[in-house]
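Form P-L/3: holo structure prediction, ligand iron/sulfur cluster.
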Amino acid sequence: MLWIRYVYVQPNRATALWTNEKGDTTMIKEVNNSVSVDDLKKFKDEVLHKYPKKVAKKRDKAILLNDPETPPQIQANVRTIPGIITQRGCTYAGCKGVVLGPTRDIINITHGPIGCGFYSWLTRRNQTKPETETDENFMMYCFSTDMQDSNIVFGGEEKLKQAIREAYELFHPKAIAIFSTCPVGLIGDDVHRVARHMKEEIGGDINIFGFSCEGYRGVSQSAGHHIANNGLFKNLIGRDDEKRGDLKYRVNLLGEYNIGGDAFELERVFEKCGINLIATFSGNSTIQKFENAHTADLNMVMCHRSINYVAEMMETAFGIPWIKVQPIGADSTAKMLRKIGQYFGDQELIDKIEEVIADEMVAVTAAREKALKKTNGKTAMLFVGGSRAHHYQNLFEELGMSTLSAGYEFGHRDDYEGRVVIPTIQIDADSRNIEEITVTKDEARYNPRKTEEELKALEADGMEFNGYEGLMPQMAKGSLVIDDLSHYEMEKLIELYKPDVFCAGIKEKFCVQKMGVPLKQLHSYDYGGPYAGFKGAINFYEDIEMIACSTIWKEMKAPWESETYVEAQYAY
Ligand code: SF4
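OUTPUT (holo model):
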């Protein structure tokens, strides 16, 4: 039975919280109608009008008015037009910085100039927690071969070998990974040959492997994710067959990078429910967790863009089904837990999950009701990542806020329109640049976790395997969806719509705030977090209430807005 518990009404918006007999609260989604579809169309016309004809033609395909029922085709994962200031990072940053970076016991050596190494030095605030004080943790280090002019002219392979020797002598790690940057690809250093050579030279069990993830190799960091996924599968996953810990309810969480402690919160929730988390890719991870991941019985994909390849490969090789989850937002976290209960079908687990949800939702509901009084009816814009611009809309919905515009930095069409469009995506030269590895059944380890009949029965009961419906079906009709937002477009969005909060990264932060709009970083969370799971939702409600409802932003005025003549001196 459902009943309305609270209704908040503002001039352009009404929001209701529904609570069922178990105490779960659900937000009724309302679209903020203070900004009409015509207004949003005005943005597109105004922006495109300013571009040169050819550029306007290209950008036209990446700026769309959404229709959740029949998502329009968006242009995504194509190269940024030269001259446009993009939010994107490079392929090396995606491989080393995003996917491999958060693993604490691999020494990650950047083969390249020092600037590349600094760029990917875990500026996203990934956290890790070694189990004992003596456990290896190299995450606070930044290893680079620091290539100089002479290495570019005469080759850098010897310098790389020397760096590996030094790293081994100092730390005796179980594994060393090498990451290629742009200059390495240009001069033709072979990091794979060096890896093989050094593995032989050092001997023993050490695992040394390389990634051809030169910054220019793909359209964005997305290519680096794919290359990292291939490397994880070829070099780590499936090397340790020992089943440790509880043999029941064994799951992996894919695409969770422990920003601000998100993985810790999710680990807490899983443990409370009795769910056995084998590996997270790659927040708070270790080599052993990767090597052992194939002993899990279910893969859950959180960031679809950065890790769906691993989920697909593990299903083919080991028979582990995968589902999409979104543990950002309290309701979405509860939904994820219920999906796990449904998958394993064990009443004891299902009951425990309901007990945990009811327990956690008490604090969540209190925090949400408090924040909602101030946040309801406010507006947000999200331009970040390949999944965050989608997942964080759950939290804004829970706060009664509507998303006027959103888009990804490095998403593909399937991240917008859903995986159903994958067969229609054209393979271009950039995609061909990335190695496609052929994965077949692992004869010794392949073990389908569910029979065909069991999978069909779960599907008939509403469970979706290998599916992701993308960002567009969740967004309101007429909202603006923009891929690879440019700096100019960002300024126009702010000028025209003044959202109450803008979510992006450090490159955008201070420009946006100088325009009098608060910016919440969703790569690094500024200094906040965790925002995943139940406690994370509470943190987010509090932080957004504080940021979006502060009156300080209207005081942000550039000197020329209040003075007709501005004089300044250089300070040396
Ligand atoms: S684009 Fe190339 S040079 Fe720049 S950080 Fe990435 S790898 Fe280094």
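COMMENT: The domain at 91-218 is CATH 3.40.50.1980 (Rossmann fold).
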